[in-house]
């Protein structure tokens, strides 16, 4: 039987504390998400050590293995799901409750990592509002538990126990796939087991003795310090913009491996991790991980605001208290074979729990979020969260090769022969996607047609590539430039959410004439000037749109919540705030006014007096916090028609009629 190592419980504490503090928004722990990777290495080590020992002694049983897993994992998970489901029923609005119900079903069947991967598109709901998001890592581990024991049994029987070379090859392939995909399909690399298995297998290889013990005390001491340093450095230096997992996951995983490998040798770091308070935090780490995220999500969801220091402290205290109670009264009583879930009762109770939760999740899914809990007005407002165009993926996010080959959608007067004489280009980001149907109608009404070239999250400017962004923004825009020249396009509409680029992203300027060391604002200013100047010099009529005012939070949720919870209506941006947030954009556009044929400032239509409402006729303008909804943007058609016909021009920073 494997001997108990208190330092490994201490390492669990090193894993869970950064995760909790990162999710609580503590800036010093910007890379705290790597704690999950440390957990993966620990899990791979412990599970493999137990399986290998039982197989070698001829007493391994698949049924007993899964019975132990049920007793270890299920009770605390059920307690957390009971709490989360009750809170979701009381708090979540219909669309969010529907998503919760779907995530509950996926968590029950250990596929929540697949569910959240499929939910991770550009227009998906914000991750911080999904109470069961953290179960993705549990699903990865549970999928590993399905494959590993069977694989080790087969290898023991048919390859005489040659576990190490086979698992090492699997780990190498998984790591290579992770490195390859992290810049191409980062969501796949993050959530799915083929790109995460190497982290668990690293622990497996340690457990099987693939790495010989360090012979000298100095080597063990150095290994422990290096391991702790790698984890600490990752926590402090990584951010949400870090490409992850891929190569960057190697640092915390190697750190965890070093601590496991040297921790049992009486090193300074091993003794530190074996201190009673640290070991205790490690002992409750599973409950701590389970409870922290739902508490944060439900608090943020209901409060509609960022947590201040006092609220964070209270939340962390509540998380720790619940974790202690969960460990003492839920985890411990069920852990031993002679306990409440001993023998076949484990499977029976697991089946009953899964059936009940599955019924609850199915009800929430089939009723589209149990709208009957609320007044019909709440359901009507909340429905705007999904009020967007379903066909858009077919027309957008085309790769540079698609642009080069002309594989782009056409909108407007497609059936009018004369329209072929003057084909426009509708170029932009996700705002082009969100408004495409409106522009389709307007182009048709004025007898014109347009090619659509839009890519989400990519600023429509020549020479720029978004930092830490896997999409081919630079290549896409270079292909657009070639498309304009090749097709001799004379009219280009440029639309984007400029506010987001100036405040929430960083760009690299890849233009050969660009200088380095400039600010985000300067890079965008130069990009706008370069793009407008180049198009104007090529004889292109430029039709530029200003950003929309947007809302502080998701507009449908804010409006529905004000009715459902009798809370004050979420305050819209004031006109002064909107202008201040977009001051740099307005200044740069004004400097380039001579290059612009027409300019659309829908904010002048939306803003009323000193405020910029996020509703029109009592319904949300946006389906999130800045993208126009499908059914409540009709008011924009008149201004857009005038804009396309060239009846709006830029003058002294304002839009006036000719």
Quick structural summary:
The protein is an alpha/beta fold and 658 residues long.
Mean pLDDT: 91
Outline the low-pLDDT stretches. 649-658
How many helices? Answer: 27
Count the domains.
2
Give a count of the beta strands, DSSP E runs of length 2 or more.
Answer: 14
Q: What strand order characterises the main sheet?
A: 1-3-2-5-7-9
What radius of gyration results from the CA coordinates?
28 Å
Category by helix and strand content = alpha/beta
Strand-residue proportion: 5-15%
Shape: globular
- Cα distance, first to last residue? 86 Å
The description of the largest β-sheet is: 6 strands, mixed
Helix content: 55-70%
Pfam families: Acyl_transf_3, SGNH
Protein name: Acyltransferase
Domain Acyltransferase: 7-327
Keywords: Acyltransferase, Membrane, Transferase, Transmembrane, Transmembrane helix
Write the layout of secondary structure elements.
Blueprint: H1 6-23, H2 35-56, H3 62-91, H4 94-108, H5 112-118, H6 135-158, H7 163-181, H8 186-191, H9 197-207, H10 217-237, H11 250-263, H12 268-273, H13 276-283, H14 285-303, H15 309-335, H16 345-366, H17 376-382, H18 400-404, E1 410-412, E2 423-428, H19 430-445, E3 449-454, E4 464-466, H20 473-486, E5 491-495, H21 498-504, E6 507-509, H22 520-537, E7 541-545, H23 555-564, E8 573-574, H24 575-581, H25 583-591, E9 596-600, H26 603-606, E10 611-612, E11 615-616, E12 619-620, H27 637-644, E13 648-651, E14 654-657
Parallel strand pairs: 2-3, 2-5, 5-7, 7-9
Antiparallel strand pairs: 1-3, 4-6, 8-10, 11-12, 13-14
Helix pairs in contact: 1-2, 1-13, 1-14, 2-6, 2-9, 2-11, 3-4, 3-14, 3-15, 3-16, 4-5, 4-16, 5-6, 7-9, 9-11, 10-11, 14-15, 17-23, 19-27, 22-25
């Amino acid at each position: 039987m494997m001997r108990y190592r208190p330092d490994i419980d201490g390492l669990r504490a090193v894993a869970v504390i950064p995760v909790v503090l990162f999710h609580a928004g503590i800036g010093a722990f910007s890379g705290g998400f790597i704690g999950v990777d440390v957990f993966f290495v620990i899990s791979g080590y412990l599970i493999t050590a137990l399986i290998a020992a039982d197989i070698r002694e001829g007493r391994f049983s698949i049924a007993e293995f899964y019975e132990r897993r049920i007793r270890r994992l299920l009770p605390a998970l059920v307690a957390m799901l009971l709490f989360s489901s009750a809170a979701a029923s009381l708090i979540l609005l219909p669309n969010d409750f529907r998503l919760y119900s779907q995530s509950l079903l996926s968590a029950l069947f250990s596929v929540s990592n697949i569910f959240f991967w499929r939910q991770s598109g550009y227009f998906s709901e914000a991750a911080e509002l999904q109470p069961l998001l953290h179960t993705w890592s549990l699903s990865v581990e549970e999928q590993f538990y399905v494959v590993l024991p069977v694989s080790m049994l087969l290898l023991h029987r048919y390859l005489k126990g040659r576990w190490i070379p086979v698992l090492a090859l699997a780990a190498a392939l998984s790591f290579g796939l992770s490195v390859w995909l992290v810049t191409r399909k980062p969501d796949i690399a993050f959530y799915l087991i083929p790109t995460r298995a190497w982290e668990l297998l690293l622990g497996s290889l340690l457990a099987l003795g693939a790495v010989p013990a360090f012979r000298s005390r100095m080597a063990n001491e150095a290994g422990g310090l290096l391991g702790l340093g790698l984890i600490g450095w990752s926590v402090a230096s990584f951010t949400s913009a870090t490409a992850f997992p891929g190569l960057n996951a190697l640092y915390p995983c190697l750190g965890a491996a070093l601590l496991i490998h040297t921790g049992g040798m009486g090193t300074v770091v091993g003794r530190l991790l074996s201190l009673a308070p640290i070991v205790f935090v490690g002992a409750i780490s599973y409950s701590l991980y389970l409870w922290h995220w739902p508490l944060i999500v439900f608090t943020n969801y209901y409060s509609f605001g960022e947590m201040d220091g006092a609220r964070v402290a209270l939340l962390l205290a509540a998380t720790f208290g619940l974790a202690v109670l969960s460990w003492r009264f839920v985890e411990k009583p069920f852990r031993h074979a002679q306990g409440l879930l001993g023998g076949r009762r484990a499977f029976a109770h697991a089946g009953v729990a899964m059936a009940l939760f599955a019924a609850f999740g199915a009800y929430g899914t089939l009723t589209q979020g149990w709208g009957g809990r609320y007044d019909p007005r709440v359901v009507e407002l909340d429905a705007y969260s999904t009020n967007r165009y379903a066909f858009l993926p077919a027309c957008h996010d085309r790769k540079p090769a698609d642009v080069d080959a002309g594989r782009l959608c056409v909108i407007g007067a497609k059936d009018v022969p004369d329209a072929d004489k003057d084909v426009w280009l509708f170029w932009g980001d996700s705002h082009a996607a969100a408004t495409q149907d409106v522009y389709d109608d307007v182009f048709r009404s004025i007898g014109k047609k347009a090619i659509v070239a839009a890519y989400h999250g990519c600023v429509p400017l020549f020479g720029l590539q978004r930092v830490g962004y896997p999409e081919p923004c630079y290549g896409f825009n270079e292909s657009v430039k070639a498309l304009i020249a090749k097709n001799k396009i004379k009219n280009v509409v440029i639309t984007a959410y400029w506010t987001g680029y100036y405040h929430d992203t960083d760009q690299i300027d890849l233009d050969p004439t660009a200088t380095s060391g400039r600010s985000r604002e300067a890079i965008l200013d130069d990009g706008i000037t370069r793009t407008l100047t180049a198009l104007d010099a090529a004889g292109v009529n430029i039709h530029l749109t200003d950003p929309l005012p947007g809302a502080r939070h998701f507009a449908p949720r804010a409006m529905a919540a004000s009715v459902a919870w009798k809370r004050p209506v979420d305050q819209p941006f004031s006109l002064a705030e909107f202008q201040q947030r977009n001051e740099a954009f307005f200044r740069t556009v004004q400097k380039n006014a001579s290059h612009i044929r027409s300019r659309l400032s829908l904010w002048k239509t939306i803003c009323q007096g000193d405020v910029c409402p996020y509703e029109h006729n009592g319904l949300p303008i946006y389906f999130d916090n800045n993208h126009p909804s499908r059914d409540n943007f009709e008011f924009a058609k008149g201004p857009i028609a005038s804009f396309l016909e060239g009846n709006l021009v830029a003058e002294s920073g304002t839009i006036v009629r000719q």
